[in-house]
Amino acid sequence: MGPATRGGCGVRCVEGNSPCRGCYGPPPDVTDPGAKVMSAIATMIDSNDANEIEKIIETIEDPAGTFYRFSLPSSMLRRKFL
Amino acid sequence: MKRITIDPITRLEGHGKVEIFCTDAGDVENVYFQVPELRGFEKFLEGRVVEEASQIVTKICGVCPGCHHMAAGKATDAVFGVRPTPTAAKLRELFYMAHFVHSHIAHFYALAAPDFVVGPTAPAAERNVLGVIAKVGVEIGTEVLKQRRIAQEIQALLGGHQTHVVMNTPGGVRKGLTEAQRKDIEEKAKGFIEFAKFSLKIFNDVVLANKTYVDIILNGPYSLNIYSMGLVDENNKVNFYDGKVRVVDPEGKEHCKYAPEDYRNWVEERVEPYSYLKYPYLKQIGWKGFVEGKDSGVYQATPLARLNVADGMATPLAQEHYEQMYKTLGGKPVHATLAMHWARLIELLYAAERALELAQDKEITSSDIQAELPNIPKEGVGIVEAQRGTLTHHYWTDEKGIITKANIIVGTTNNNAAISMSLKKAAQGLIKKGVTVSEGILNMVEMAFRAYDPCFSCATHSLPGNMPLEVVFKDAKGNITRQVKRN
Predict the structure, then answer these.
(1) Cα angle value B412/B415/B419 (rounded, 5°)
(2) ipTM, 2 decimals?
(3) Residue pLDDT, tens place only, B77-103
(4) Which helix (H) or strand (E) holds B194?
(5) Where are the domains of chain A?
(6) Residue from A9, A12, A23, A66 to probe the interface with B (highest B Cβ count within 10 Å)
């Protein structure tokens, strides 16, 4: 969640060899942190085939719960499940 | 009828309230121990991927996050049907020993010691951690904080963060240990052993050398003749991280010894309308109400219970003190509630010795820290000993590893019925007709729960962070005659 998360934590989880979960919330100018993470992930998907892209995206379990983990109560999703 | 309310109760983790109902004459008729907080972690684990559980549950409590992390880690191993590699298991246990060291130090010096070092009926303004430091000296006070900090630093090193631990993966840990780090921990563990020995000496000099205190421990209204529960290793020695849960009856005879996955054959939970905290009891014995004895399913899971169920300690110095304790208190099992403080310090010494053993283990710096995960996730139970009692996490998942149901039985929850009964006994023993109910007397009632080192934020899985206490006295008609409040 690093690319869409406010810093200042001292990257302790990453230092602990664990992925960032975004617990510091989104940076101040971001209104939709989940979309920002999806955007960051999209840049890593090395394919131009729509079906393959879809398949890769499907491997992400619970995208709403994961990408809005620490921002869901105030997010643009308005508590909707995806 | 007179009603005395202690709300909030103090020097514990979380919130609690005690209601004492007296007869017109002034004797105690009944005591209700209430936990008025609720959190609901079992519910919001649902829908999350199970690998994340061990990080979510650290938020249950800031005092014992490592316990939840470990129980969740082990439950997650079980969900995937794997065992962690030997190095991973040892790293987890090393982290966990540091966790016990910091928590047991905090309880003894900050929460328990004021009652003994300063005195059970000393003025409240002095009966606190600062009063303890004033008595024992700033140098010792500094050492207490230092050892606690060092233990926290070891947790942070191994777990990524001392409170929001990110250590466990299914079947492993995320990070190994370098040789330099190992050496550093080895030295620190030696320091823990010295400090634990010193703490036991304080207990010996301040408590055991004082006839009045020994009399309170052995003959005061602080004793409960009930079952004991605790985790033991394959040699039936006390173990905090792994093993089987052993339960012994009030005479010390084994009632059962179960593997984590069988816990529901042995433990059942029930609710009372006046508290958010559940009341687990031994299923095969059954719930007979808040009563003592062999026929009642009430049990305790505390440091004393762990020593009661075990055949001994797995480390030499702790074993010496274990033998000394039972010799002094008249053999096994011990039912004196206040002996929990002694047992806790013996456990501190064990945790320190075990930390040194692990820090000197040849395997501990191996890079083999992650087992393979060949199985489809399903269901799993993980049990560790939290400082405050046996901690059980049970998760059910779908085939993708999304949690569909979670059940958590927290250390303190095990002791809910026992704490209620201890409070009633203490109140009945201390508050009688003709006795002026002073703040000191009320504190001596509180000592009955304090020995358990209860953590209600954990037990109700809860919201607020500060701890208020109030005692309300009501007459036979229910009119409030007196209120004692503490904030």
Answers:
(1) 110
(2) 0.84
(3) 999 999 999 999 999 999 999 999 999
(4) helix B179-202
(5) 2-74
(6) A12
